[in-house]
UniProtKB/TrEMBL annotation:
The active site is at residue 104. It is an enzyme of class 2 (transferase). It comes from Sphingomonas oligophenolica. It holds the Pfam family IMS_HHH. This is DNA polymerase IV.
Amino acid sequence: MTRKIIHVDMDAFYASVEQRDDPRLRGRPVAVGSATGRGVVAAASYEARRFGVRSAMPSVTALKRCPELIFVPHRFDVYRAVSQQIRAIFLDYTPLVEPLSLDEAYLDVTENLKGLPSATETATEIRARIFETTGLTASAGISYNKFLAKLASDQNKPNGQCVITPGAGPAFVAGLEVGRFHGVGPKTAERMNRLGIRTGADLRACELAFLLAHFGKAGAWYHAIARGEDDRRVNPDQPRKSSGSETTYEVDLVEPEQVEAGVRAMADDVWAWCEKSGGRGRTVTVKARYADFRQVTRSRTRASTVGDRETLHEVALALVRTLFPLRAGIRLIGVTLSTFDHTGDEAQFDLLRQADGGR
């Protein structure tokens, strides 16, 4: 049976929530984040995007592009609550819901619980209910696999939807630049471009052996998606693979005591998620980014899971101490726990606690 997959993606989610809750922000360029110090844009309204403002952009750059840009602090507790409302709507139509983040998810509606005749009608009804319940708009992509559904959801944003039928999938992929493909990051796109691969059609012309030679195991994935093929199922029980927290500091950390305090704070954030979810991991990773943007990571995998906050502190501190004496000031510290033996609550609990405005 041909699958019917919907990818639902909320429109400028964080910024739209802020505009919904504060009428003074409606119709104006809004950025969620911090305008001070080393602030970055966590999310931008569509009014701001018209000026070229994008997420992860330094706030200084964003203000140069749009001097009228209004910055508002993030409210992750509100975003999570709205996300839960949206998730409840999804579950009225199918138990096969795979959240990707607070604002997007895959739904397999091959057999929808409402008995609607098509995935297109299902997506239309879901988007209408989201708007009725939350006052926010969503876009949707409908197709026969996850890869194409995700591509389609971006076609008619904001507040639109797009259908890619089985017969149209290969031709749709052929006309896109490879940088648009999920799973092809900027560096990989550059490598492909250097090899003469600029579009889906170029990628499809490559032999599997050629792609494996240049891209390793990922070559098989690129070979498949160039033909509109993706056999991944929507997995509602997708296990959490890691939990991490990181902070960018407005002033570089230059003393070991400062760095250790930062590591403890990030480890505390990670452990808060562990206690909430029941998740336990064996690998601890510490990330540090120097003032010159050089980044280093240190990891250690234990024979048993990290069982308490003190152990997480101990391992993380031992890792960061390998960087002493510091070669330069440190602008970012991160701690991640991975190699999970058990994951509990599958709800998203995003722990990017960033002093520069968050993501």
